[in-house]
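Board notes (copied after class):
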Amino acid sequence: MKRFKRRSARMNILHFHVLIRRYFRQIFTNPGVLLPLVLQAPVMLLIFAVVCRSDAFAVRDVTGANLAIFMLVIMCALMGLLNSYREICKEREILSREVFGGLDVTAYVFSKFFVLFVIGAAQSLLLYAGALLLVDFPFANVGEYALGWLALLLTNVSTAAIGLLISALLKKSESAILPVLLVIIMQVVFADCLISLDGAAAWLRYVTPAAWGAAVFGRLCRINGWYPEIEWYHRDLYEANPLLSVLVLAAFAAVFVWLTAWRLRRAYRQKD
């Protein structure tokens, strides 16, 4: 039996940098990988332009405003999940050889996450910039604009981390279709924008990244204050401090990345 060996922090950092360079080289030298990543945000932005009203916030159309928030957040969540759910599955044989050749699995997971973070930052920024041109969001200052982008980025990154965990749990990417579908449905149903949640269902929004991403926009746009006399329009998470929502999203990402590394460390702890 060959046991998993502890390695020095210096060696792990070296693995991390080498893997990052390798993944970026694979992306930029493979049109089949690069093209979908480049086209995702523009295609989703086109859908956003067709569906959302440009004056929804100006005329205080609650349904239209919630739809714009919902579309932005869900699109970022989908991009993050689609970018990541196959990343480890497709390299399972290569990973097995490299781990027992000396590769540190924690460095491997962190390098995957770092590349996904960079991709998510670019995609969410492009989508956000286009959305700002199409819809007049009532942000008061530069800080609120920055918080909006941070919310989209962390929504993307947190669902990407969920995708990594799914990929680490399964050996074939074909097997990931069902869990990915369940994650997508959860983001859509429990985002707490268009669908009013009550009872036990309302608690599930607290473990849904899309709901916390939407909470940032709902608070910054002050939607709960538009028609306080109409209870149906009120969303509890729209009252949350935006910084708290951002921290929750960051915590989601950190937890799922840690779980992914833990899962792989257990899988390769010992092997014949």
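Comment from the instructor: The chain has a mean pLDDT of 90. The longest strand covers residues 2-3.
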